[in-house]
Amino acid sequence: MDTTTSREDLVARAAEIAPLIAKHAAWSEENRRLHDEIIEAFGTAGLLRMRAPQRYGGHEADLSTVKEVITQVGRGDGSAAWTLSVWSICSWLVGLFPDEAQDEVFANPDARVCGLLSPGGMGTPADGGLVVNGRWQFNTGALQSDWNSLIVVAPMPDGQMAPVMALAPTSELQIIDDWHTSGLRGTGSVTTAARELFIPAHRLLPMGPVLHEIYASKANADSAVYRTPMLLTAATTTAGTVLGLAQAAKEAFFERLPSRKITYTAYESQREAPLTHLQVAEAVLKLDEAEFHADRAASTLDAKSRAGQAWTLEERARVRADLGRMVELAKGSIDTLKSASGASSIYNGVSLQRIARDIEALSLHAILHPDTNYELYGRILAGLEPNTLYI
């Protein structure tokens, strides 16, 4: 596959498979994992290798491209978009590891790598690596992934305990099938566990340097794609899921609108009602505003990485705030349209009910939660130091 595939081409490919994704959305939700045809379509369209390095046949796409691609996927199904966003994040994370680890993972450039950014286990030093034990919840896509990026706490050379990223084949982990949720059911975000699992040194990456943009890969050192801050990159990669859900809600509402009336009123057509005019205007404007904040976050990351510019704390915190605002606005847009859709929208066959549950789940995610991100931004604006390392 051509490794110089353009943004427009990748976005077009994603838009082309969105109907197939939508067709299988109910199956994915019921079975709590993506339908195999969705994963096959991701691979055929080249979406699984969006963030893989070009030297392995990947696209090495920037964040603005990833955001737009995942937005198109999200129009079909939020669970499919969220899973693709996690695979994209973790594929990018592999690009930060020592090159030997990349050779191992990207022997298949379409390798599906899932993972988390919060510690769930401990690492004990052993000859040539760490022995890992632990449990990791919310492990999106683990049921259908080849590799898993885990965070363990392990002793550093100075004796201090610190988080370390560890890459393991998913086949070496125990799967605990506990993903029974109200939203994003199709992501299969199960718990994984490791017991006395050896991880060799080349598949370990201490988080301390990573949080300061000091990465282990030599081959990717000159690539702008692999110079962005880790947490901001991960958070921004998820933006397309949020925007895709809001766009899907808008499309679903207007598709139903011509045939709907407002029960117990004189309005035989809902689109004749002034209330509806106010509701749709508010919802669409909120979506427009959400897109602005997502675009600003992604374009800021892309531009600064290309220019090799240092980041200020305020710039970092503003990206977090942009993403929190994006979620709040997109959820507000969806909530307005869902409220205007009447009781008939609660049927399983109406996509709006699933979209509303999915955006509710997303809005609670720690990396996207509006209040958490606003507080961090306000704290920096007030002249205080951040109260988190994840910035």
TrEMBL record:
Residues 238-369 form the Acyl-CoA dehydrogenase C-terminal domain. Residues 21-104 form the Acyl-CoA dehydrogenase/oxidase N-terminal domain. GO terms for molecular function: acyl-CoA dehydrogenase activity; flavin adenine dinucleotide binding. Keywords: Oxidoreductase. InterPro entries: Acyl-CoA_DH_C, Acyl-CoA_Oxase/DH_mid-dom_sf, AcylCo_DH-like_C, AcylCoA_DH/ox_N, AcylCoA_DH/ox_N_sf, AcylCoA_DH/oxidase_NM_dom_sf. Pfam families: Acyl-CoA_dh_2, Acyl-CoA_dh_N. SUPFAM superfamilies: Acyl-CoA dehydrogenase C-terminal domain-like (SSF47203), Acyl-CoA dehydrogenase NM domain-like (SSF56645). This is Acyl-CoA dehydrogenase. It comes from Catellatospora methionotrophica. The lineage of its organism: Bacteria, Bacillati, Actinomycetota, Actinomycetes, Micromonosporales.
